[in-house]
TrEMBL record:
Keyword Transmembrane helix: yes
Keywords in alphabetical order: Membrane, Transmembrane, Transmembrane helix
NCBIfam families found in the cross-reference section: spore_V_AE
Organism: Cerasibacillus terrae
Key word Hydrolase present: no
Xref: InterPro entries: Spore_V_AE (IPR014204), SpoVA (IPR005562)
Superkingdom of the source species: Bacteria
Transmembrane segments: 6-24, 93-112
Xref: Pfam families: SpoVAC_SpoVAEB (PF03862)
Protein name: Stage V sporulation protein AE
Length: 116
């Protein structure tokens, strides 16, 4: 059943993104930013963790999870280190994902001939 709910929740997030681009004529960059901010707001309100518990990968794979990670890391480090923890917490939690994206992007560019 977890696969079904992951598919449904992930699909709903994708449908919302498509509506933002088709109906409201937002660019992909605006849609991406909207989702990151929306994920951050949901985590700040304490609503994103229950969504992850319910939908699993359907909530952790989309870009909304990046906003969740930023706020989650900042709040956790702020409790331990104060104001400086807000800044360091965001980077500490998300650094491995960003580093992996850069490394795999470079490897992909080296292995395959980029068009353009």
């Amino acid at each position: 059943m977890i696969f079904f709910w992951a598919f449904v929740v992930g699909g709903i997030i994708c449908v919302i993104g498509q509506i933002l681009m088709d109906v409201f004529k937002l660019t992909p960059a605006h849609t991406l930013t909207t989702f990151v901010v929306f994920g951050a707001i949901l985590d700040g309100l304490g609503l994103y963790e229950p969504l992850i518990d319910f939908a699993g990968a359907g909530a952790t794979v989309p870009i909304t999870s990046f906003g969740n990670s930023l706020v989650h890391g900042a709040m956790a480090e702020a409790e331990e280190h104060g104001l400086i923890g807000v800044v360091t917490g965001m980077f500490e939690v998300t650094s491995s994902g960003i580093s992996a994206a850069i490394i795999f992007g470079v490897i992909g560019a080296l292995l395959f001939k980029p068009k353009g």
